[in-house]
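My current task is to audit a protein record that another person submitted. Please read both lines and tell me whether the tokens look consistent with the sequence. Do not assume that whoever made the record got everything right. I have pasted the whole thing underneath without changing anything:

===
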Amino acid sequence: MDFDIITSSLKKGWEAFTGNAVAFIVGFLIALIGSILIVTIAPLFYGFYYMAVKASRGEKLAIKDVFYGFKSFGLFIRAWIYFIVVFLLAIIIGIITSILTMVLTYIHVSLALVGMLISILLSIVFSLTIFYTMYIYIMTPSKNIIYALKEGFGVFKGNVLMTIVAYIVYYILTLIGMILLGIGLLITIPIAMVFTVSVLKALRPTIQDGSD
């Protein structure tokens, strides 16, 4: 496994954040606060993810980039399509794991732990499967959600170990941000997101970033 991808992507994440700290921090706060209004959740976070994609190109960010999901009605709908589809998939996975745990527990109480472990494993696999999906969805505006899901799964399937390592690094950064009274997330989340985009581009350079 080429660990240079991990280290270089972390470096890109740090450089992208330090070069756009104000835009990232204010953009993240806008996305969080704006999410109080349910109708703005999807387009605001779509815009924040777009900021990570844009920063990964080495471009300068502006605070207004967080409103990218409001740029057109089509983008607004596109953001909500992603949010709804992934939300429904998560619910389906949750239902399947719950039923599995109940069935195994019904067969024998000693199997309850097995059911829980399988449920956790399925949830992790699902998270890994969609790990790159939002970035792909933003980078390929002419493609639909099915394409993004298939490509995301394809990148994961072809790079299982690298994706697991990238996933762990992402959540270590998130954990560090949470440990720092949560305020650290304003720094570590943007770094983690640009890091993920950079890993994705290294693993699948054939995906053209045409989000603009």
Summary: The radius of gyration is 18 Å.
